[in-house]
Amino acid sequence: MGEKRYLTERMQPFTSTIFAEITALATRTGSINLGQGFPDTDGPRELLDAASTALYSGANQYPPGPGIPELRTAVAEHQQRFYDLDVDPDTEVLITTGATEAIASSILALCEPGDEVVTFEPYYDSYVASIALAGAERRTVRLRHPRFDIDGDELRAAFSDRTRIVLLNTPHNPTGKVFTRAELEHIAELAVEHDAVVVTDEVYEHLVFDGLSHVPIATLPQMADRTLTISSAGKTFSVTGWKIGWMHGRAELVAAARAVKQFLTFVSGGPLQPAVAAGLRLGDEVFHDLGRNLQRKRDLLVAGLQRAGFDVFPTSGTYFVIVDAAPLGFDDGVELCQRLPELAGVAAVPVSVFCDDKESTRSLVRFAFCKRDEVLHAAADRLSRLGAG
Ligand code: PMP
Ligand code: GLN
Prior knowledge:
This protein has helices at about 20-30, 45-55, 70-85, 100-110, 125-135, 150-160, 180-195, 235, 250-265, 270-280, 285-310, 335-345, 375-389, and strands at about 30-35, 95, 115-120, 135-145, 150, 165-170, 195-200, 225-230, 245-250, 310, 320-325, 345, 350, 365-370. The protein is α/β, with parallel strands linked by helices.
C-alpha cells in the first residue's frame, strides 16, 4: 500500500489558497502586498466603538442561531434603503461567519451530489472548493478580457437539466466587472427556464465606480423568490477580519441554508453583530464616500501600472484590477507572481489560478488597490523598475 493520504479525494486540489501563499511570500520578502485584498486602514469609528461597547457589556455568549434581531433588521433596512427590496428580518435573513460561510452553506444545502452549479471564470476560490465539498459539478462560463464580456451561447450551453444553482458575483472579483442589467436579465431568464436558484455574492456592492450602479439580481422580475443574496461587513466597513456576513432570500431557501450553517459554526461573532448593525445604519454618505475614495485609489494604481508597461484592463468595482504582463515580456503570471517580490518588491496574484481554462489567462495578474495612497505610490514606483530591466 502506498503512503496514506488523509485528505479526501474531492479536497485534494484545495490544499492551500493563493491568498495565503502570496501573503506569506510578501511577508517573507518584505514586499508591498497588493496580492490579498484587504485594506490597510480601519473602517468607520462608529463600528469600532460599538464593537468595543458590546464586548464590555456582556455580549460574549452564543447569539441566536439566525443572528441577533437587531442585525437582521439592519440588513433588511439596508436592502430596502439601497435597492427597494422587501425583506422580512425574522424569516428571510441569516447572519453567517462571513460571506464565505453563506456561500458554503447555500451550496451544501441546495446541491445533491452530481448537481451542477453554473458560475463564471475567473472565479473566487471558495466557490470551487464549496462546490467540490458538496460533491456537485461546476460549469463555468468565461468572462472574456479585455472587457470581461459574456458569450451568450456559452452561457446558455452551461445550463442543463442538472443545473441547481447559478453562482453569481457582482461586482466581480477578480475582474472588477459590474454586471449590466441586460446581462443579469439573460442570466435570470436562464435560471427561470431551468428552475435554478441564483446564489449571488454581492460583497463589493458599495465598491462601484464611474457612476455605475450595482444591480442586485433579486430586484429583477420573478427573481426575488429564487435568489439568495449574500454580502458581508468585511468590504463595506473595511473589517475583513471580522467575518460577519449575511444572506437573505425566500424563507424556505434561507431555512435550508440555516440547517447547514448551524452545524458548520452554529452561530457567528456575538459582539461584532451589534457593531455591524450600527454600521449598516450609518448615513448614505459613508457608503458613497467608500466608493469615491476607492475610485481615486484605482486611478492612482492604474496610472502606475500603465507607466510600468502593463496592459491594464478596465475595472469598475471591487478592490482589484487585472493587467496583462505579456507586453513586459512575462508570459506566465504564476511565475511572474513568484518572482515579482524579488524583481520589484511588490506582491500580486496570478489570474489563471481562478480559471479552468488556464491558457487564456496565462499572462494575467491581479493587483489590489485598497491601500493607503503612499503605499500605492511606493508600489507604482517599484513596479516602474520592471520595464527598465
Ligand atoms: N466573495 C468574494 C467575491 C470575495 O472577494 C471575498 C473575499 N473577501 C469573499 C466572498 C469572502 O467574504 P468574507 O470575508 O465575508 O467571508
Ligand atoms: N477576498 C480576498 C481577495 O480576493 C481574500 C480573501 C482570502 O484571503 N480568502 O483577495
